[in-house]
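Checked the freezer inventory, then went back to the computational side. Two predictions to log before the end of the day. The first one is the construct we discussed on Monday; recording sequence and tokens without edits.
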Amino acid sequence: LVGLLTSEALTLPYYRNHELARWADELAASGTVTRGLAFSSAMAQFMPASLSRRVLDMVDVDSDKWAQYAPTQRWPLSWVYAREGRKLAEWEARVAEDFDATLLVSNDEAALLQQRAPQAKSRIGAFENGVDADYFSPARDYPNPYPADVQGVVFTGAMDYWPNIDAVTWFADHIFPAVRDAVPGAQFTIVGSRPTEAVIGLARQTGVVVTGGVSDVRPWLAHAACAVAPLRIARGVQ
């Protein structure tokens, strides 16, 4: 409601925290901290202007996600999401022009922000996520969580996140039946915490398993025949 009244992106008042803002301002005023790194566009609002160098790891152009959400919803959510897409895009361009450097997770994301903030183009770049190749190595000796006669097709992710819900639903409804026809032993396993009722309901389909949260995703990945990422609505790196 505050965001609607002040004509700002709803993301900003949603994450606003006066204690955090005061803490950051006090650190900057003390001279103890002279440089700052903010993670995501929502956190840019806490970065003191007085710091000598300020870097924003925006990760992805989140406004485009909301713009993608809008056509999939009925009014009033369609209006709210479209508005958020516009307002957050304005904020992202503003902070990109204000910060000394802005990083995004892929070249495509960086190019999109450069189009929206041309004055800051030279200060916008990509910095990809790293992967701990040893920790996630499939060569490690994990117990096989799949039945012996199963060819595992796995998706991992937080299962209360809308793009993930859309992804597994679309895959289960439109792709996996053809996979089962070709490979009768295929099992689509959805591994991730907090599955919604819609996700849990997918387990009623033949060959679909929903695990809920697991202590370690690595065995599910290591012993799968393949991993899928059928995301249709999302930003960043899939």
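The second is the one RB wanted added to the comparison set:
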Amino acid sequence: IDMSTSNYTNDQLGYYVSNFRFAEGSSDKRSKLLTTGKLETSGILFATNSAEVKSDNEGTIKEVAAAMTENPDLKIKIIGHTDAIGKPDANLILSAKRAESVRDALVKNYKINADRMETEGKGSSAPVTDDKSEAGKTRNRRVEFVKI
């Protein structure tokens, strides 16, 4: 600021900021589980026809672990879902094993007591969309965390 044209000293001048916007962020997974009692994600990826967790690219397991660590009375049910590809009986077993794998990751990696978690597999019995596209299949292959 050119002080030669101002009647104010540097100490009297303030800083002004303009031309900024606030971006609306999404609520974190932890608060969603705690406030709504349910969290659903397609971001936990499993190996094909396997219960092995390949990745958790959204950090959902870590967020659920943090919620459970911060809230020692919190108990959850982990529900696994599959797409409709394959036999329904096999999908039911696979979805149950995937839910168990997520529970096991919470126990092993984050030291969450297994007694605080139940697991269930629903196979392809509760789709959120049709399986006609790859995007639909991906959305149906999901894990739910439900507060109990």
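For RB: Residues 88-110 form the longest helix (23 residues). Residues 63 and 117 are 15 Å apart (CA to CA). Let me know if you want it refolded.
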